[in-house]
């Protein structure tokens, strides 16, 4: 009789007569508690977006039948919807203790691990799921995603390569695989993947922008410049896109065009250190040193620490061109102080001292420091050595 009533309830739920189904369930529960009825009541409440109430009814179902994995998995899903991820994981684990081969529980638990950024755990779970059925498209997709998120890039690309063959219409797969190749410093493979994405999605804004940005990051400035031009011809232009385009113009020796584009960016974002720096660098190339110094000085003032050495280096060169040698040396010393790997700056300090300071011992000191740090591999080692010999000879005769 109870089974017949539950079939009637299932039909009411199927036809979305939730009020009728709830009335029938409550009538049955008044006679006798039943896990299946509590479960159905929970499903109705969930469909009505009454998640806390649905959870309470599901708790009743689990208390009556704690070995039913369907109840545990459904409760895990409710816990996750309410943000209680620890309880969700615990229910999935309990379901797997009851049935270790429950692929649904494993799969859903793996997804939960991804959501809470426990990517290594997700990889382990999806590895088991994938071993059970490596032909399953969805298993392959999420195993690849977990590996990608866990920064296991070689595993991720091997899975994505297989997955794209099975499902070539998933844009995210191409983008993730390209980025994974990029993280592995395999730029040609990353570029090839983006070209495949471009062929598959020829008018996709995300693909076009990723292609342009990737070329920019890889310092393929000529190609990046064209890609940004194509992008801006088709879509709305944002400040980051216009900034990168301006920087590409600088590196491709189109300084005036770079200034024109970067000035547009400056009007919208005057406190951006990159915009200021590349405006300064472009003006420096055009021998407009006053403007160059102002932009680079402000870029230094607002810049993040990791970019300061290069900015001080450029500022030192600008001051040198302006014949303000003391400021030039001060900026170059600051650049070297911030990044002692830039040993060529020592050579530039030496030549600057030699040009403006009558006391050549300072130049001699920095030439010696340069050779000590750079060794014979220094790009200006031969010249530095010749200047050392000449300065020493001059100092000897002056005595």
Summed up:
The chain is mostly helical. Helices cover 79% and strands 0% of the residues.
Describe the structure.
It is built from 23 helices and no strands. With 399 residues, the protein is mainly alpha-helical. Among the domains are: 118-202, Serine Threonine Protein Phosphatase 5, Tetratricopeptide repeat (Alpha Horseshoe); 209-305 and 322-334, Serine Threonine Protein Phosphatase 5, Tetratricopeptide repeat (Alpha Horseshoe); 343-399, no CATH class. The protein is elongated, with a radius of gyration of 33 Å. 38% of the residues are buried. The model has no long low-confidence stretch (mean pLDDT 90).
| CATH class category of the domain at 209-305 and 322-334 | Mainly Alpha
Number of beta strands: 0
* CATH topology (fold) name of the domain at 209-305 and 322-334: Serine Threonine Protein Phosphatase 5, Tetratricopeptide repeat
Query: What is the CATH architecture descriptor of the domain at 209-305 and 322-334?
Result: Alpha Horseshoe
> What structural category arises from helix and sheet content?
mainly alpha
**Whole-number average pLDDT?**
90
Our measurement of the CA-to-CA distance between the termini, rounded to an integer number of angstroms, reads 120 Å
| CATH superfamily descriptor of the domain at 209-305 and 322-334 | Tetratricopeptide repeat domain
- Given as residue ranges, the uncertain stretches (5+ residues, pLDDT < 50) are none
Query: How would a textbook summarize the main sheet?
Result: none
- Individual helix count: 23
Radius of gyration: 33 Å
The backbone outline, from C-alpha atoms, is: elongated
Helix content: over 70%
């Amino acid at each position: 009789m109870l089974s017949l009533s539950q079939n009637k309830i299932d039909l009411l739920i199927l036809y979305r007569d939730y009020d009728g189904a709830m009335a029938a369930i409550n009538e049955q529960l008044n006679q006798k508690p039943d896990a299946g009825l509590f479960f159905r009541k929970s499903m109705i409440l969930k469909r009505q977006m009454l998640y806390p109430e649905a959870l309470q009814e599901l708790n009743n179902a689990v208390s009556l039948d704690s070995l039913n994995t369907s109840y545990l998995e459904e409760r895990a899903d409710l816990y996750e919807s309410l943000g209680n991820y620890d309880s969700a994981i615990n229910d999935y684990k309990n379901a797997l203790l009851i049935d270790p081969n429950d692929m649904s529980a494993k799969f859903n638990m793996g997804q939960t691990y991804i959501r809470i950024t426990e990517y290594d755990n997700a990889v382990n779970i999806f590895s088991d799921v994938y071993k059970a059925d490596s032909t399953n498209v969805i298993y392959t997709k999420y195993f690849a995603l977990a590996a990608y998120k866990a920064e296991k890039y070689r595993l991720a690309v091997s899975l994505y390569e297989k997955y794209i063959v099975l499902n070539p219409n998933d844009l995210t797969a191409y983008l993730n695989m390209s980025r994974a190749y990029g993280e592995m410093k395999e730029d040609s493979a990353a570029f090839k993947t983006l070209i495949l994405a471009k062929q598959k999605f020829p008018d996709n804004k995300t693909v076009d922008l990723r292609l342009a940005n990737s070329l920019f990051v890889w310092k393929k400035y000529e190609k990046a410049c064209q890609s940004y031009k194509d992008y801006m011809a088709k879509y709305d232009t944002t400040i980051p896109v216009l900034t990168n385009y301006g920087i590409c113009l600088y590196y491709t020796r189109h300084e005036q065009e770079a200034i024109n584009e970067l000035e547009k960016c400056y009007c919208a974002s005057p406190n951006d250190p990159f915009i200021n720096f590349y405006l300064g660098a472009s003006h420096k190339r055009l021998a407009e040193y006053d403007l160059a110094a102002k932009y680079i000085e402000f870029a230094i003032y607002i810049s993040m620490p990791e970019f300061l050495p290069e900015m001080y280096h450029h500022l030192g060169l600008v001051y040198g061109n302006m014949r303000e040698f003391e400021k030039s040396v001060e900026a170059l010393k600051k650049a070297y102080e911030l990044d002692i790997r830039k040993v060529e700056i020592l050579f530039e300090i030496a030549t600057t001292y030699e040009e403006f300071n009558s006391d050549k011992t300072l130049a001699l000191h920095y030439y010696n420091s340069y050779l000590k740090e750079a060794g014979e591999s220094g790009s200006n080692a031969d010249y530095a050595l010749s200047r050392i010999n000449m300065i020493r000879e001059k100092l000897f005769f002056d005595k």
